[in-house]
Amino acid sequence: MSSLQSFFALIPLQLPDLRISDDAAPPQCCGLSCNLPLPPSPPTWRFGGHFLPRRKPFLIVAGWINEYGPVITIRSRFEKIVYIGRYKAAVDIMECQGKLVAGRPPMISAGISSGGMGFANAPSGNRLYRMRRTLHSYLRSKAAKAYQPLQMSHAKNIVVGILDDPYNFQRHVVTYAATTIMKVAYGKNTHTSRAVQRHDAYLVDSIPWLKYLPWYGRDLKLRFERSKKLHTSEVNRVKEQMHNNEDIGPSFTKYMLENSHIYGFTETEIAFLAGSFLKAGSQTTSNTMCTVLMAAACFPEEQAKVQAELDAVIGWHRAPTFADQKSLPRLQAFISEALRWRPLVPDGLAHQTIKDKTYCIPAGTTVYGNVWSICRDPDVFPEPDAFKPQRWIDGQSSLRDDIKLFVFGFGRRVCPGQHVASRSVFITALLVLWAFKLTLDPTKPLEDMGFMGESMPDIRPCEFEFEKRIPETELRRMMQDYPEVA
């Protein structure tokens, strides 16, 4: 390439403002390379492309979507990235054609640190299909539903923990999530403390040829060896318990060892697949729980409506269980609205198209479903900035089934543990809101976006105050006698 060509390659090309109406049928690529332009792009003359801040970049993307349409293109260096920010477009692209956006952009550092065995960043293909089918089949099975008594027991412990030490409420929630995940993954009844590895930016993801240098990435390779040792030791422990005919109850690892002939995974692959529960399920679940309860404290009138429903259905003379779920549409609507109000992963996770398809997005394009904007689509969620749980209830006072949340992801990349997580969030919100009235400590700062993220924040976004709705003696007695069945 000549120096003149190199110069022009650095000049960002402004894409035409090709608006795509939500009501219009999207242009079809019919399996061929699309000759039409990419979706519209906000103007920029920066050599590095569009600027997105490290903190809350979803707010900038949301502003562009409001101005340029439901699907937009931005440029990051020389890569074109498509953001989807409206409900119908998300359904059209990410759901109806989920197979075509089931890829992940290559992240070399993640591949090295996981030894190529990670689930979250696995490329589209047969291996991803097998892992996904395995996880979904187990987490929707009767064995997974057997965890409901465990979830009830751990939710009870949160109530007792609040009575004993309300200041450390967040620690109680984190303990709940971690112990539940350990039980699902390995059948362990106790939480093993371990650090959740954060994936930072690595130069190799921008300069791929670095991976061929023998001295590069030693810390990533060491991370893989540590993870392999940790996950393998847990699998070996379950194998030993099975060999000794110990009654350890259901677990994903036990299920996989018993059915390895069906799924065809090696023990190392089983170890990393079980380990994915810990990485993906623990702190995300605890942050979701805290978000729901923070919403209750931030919107006391809506909290009071939920508690009126709880008093009418349950009363104060018995503790609620999963058996009450179908009778509590307002509580379930409140949870849905809290997750719409402050979605856990507002930016969404990166997908990659594997074929040219709808909206003229060529193969190999990185695609994000901007969950923040989708949850604020005014055509689906009128007055999107208002907190209105009633929007999730139909004219017959039942939960609506014609709209859905995308907080667990999209299409073939949807979180396989969403059912376990949803039950955890429900039973925790149910017991805590039944037992306590939540308010915010007015002397402490509030960061109402503080729980949005995949790890528990280092600085507490808020402080709760808990007012007992039931005499403490009665509440402790009911928690002590809390049923062992759902």
From TrEMBL:
Pathway(s): Secondary metabolite biosynthesis
Signal peptide: none
Cofactor(s), names only, from the UniProt record: heme
Recorded coiled-coil stretches: none
Key words, A-Z: Heme, Iron, Metal-binding, Monooxygenase, Oxidoreductase
Stored Pfam families: p450 (PF00067)
UniProt: heme binding residues: C415
GO molecular function, one term: oxidoreductase activity, acting on paired donors, with incorporation or reduction of molecular oxygen
Keyword presence, Heme: yes
PANTHER family in the record: P450, PUTATIVE (EUROFUNG)-RELATED (PTHR46300:SF1), P450, PUTATIVE (EUROFUNG)-RELATED-RELATED (PTHR46300)
Entry similarity comment: Belongs to the cytochrome P450 family.
Protein name as catalogued: Cytochrome P450
